[in-house]
Each structure stands twice: as structure tokens, then as C-alpha cells.
Amino acid sequence: MPSKVSSTYGVTTTDPVTLTSACVGAGVLAGLVASFALGRFVRTLLFQIEPSDPASFGTAVLIAAVALLGAALLPARRAAMVDPIAALRDE
Fold first, then answer.
1. What's the burial of 70, exposed, middle or buried (CB within 10 Å: 0-12/13-18/19+)?
2. What does pTM read for this prediction?
């Protein structure tokens, strides 16, 4: 339950989680664009695979998204549940 201070500013407990998910999505999208743009430079390093192989891209995006969401959503969810006044009082 959010405190009176945070609810005064319109902060809900889902805001950090939503923001984290949006940042992960933006990072994955930026990575996809960059990898497509830079794929031709690594063509000589790849063996029997094209730089724009859909299976490779899908697997890489899935692994990156799961790792990013696991690393970012769990702390954001925990932080959203902490009462800000109690956290400041403990500092």
C-alpha cells in the first residue's frame, strides 16, 4: 500500500514495474536495430549462418529479454512494495 506522500504525487505500486518493463522493451528494440545495422560487419566471423537469421535473432532476443526482465523486475517489484517513509526512517 503506497504511503500518503507517494499517493499525493500519484505514484502507485505498479509504476516502477511498468517503467522497468518499458526500459527493457526499449533496450531490446535498440539492440535489434543495432544488430541489424552492424550485422554486415560480422559476416566474415560467422560460420554457416547469415547475420540476419530469424532463428538466431529470435533466440538472442528471448534470452536477453528474460535475463533483463529477471534482473530488473524483481528488484523493482520489491522496491514498489516498500513504504517510503519506513525506508527513509531506516537510513
1. exposed
2. 0.60
Of 77, 83, 82, the closest CA to residue 20 belongs to 77
**What is the H or E stretch that residue 70 is in?**
helix 54-81
Q: How far, in Å, CA of 37 to CA of 52, rounded?
A: 10
Residue 81 is predicted with a pLDDT of 81
Q: How far apart are alpha carbons 47 and 53 in whole angstroms?
A: 12
Q: Which residues of the chain have pLDDT under 50?
A: 1-3, 5
* Torsion over CA: 21, 26, 27, 33 (sign): positive
Burial class (CB in 10 A: 0-12, 13-18, 19+), 24: buried
Q: Where are the domains of the chain?
A: 16-81
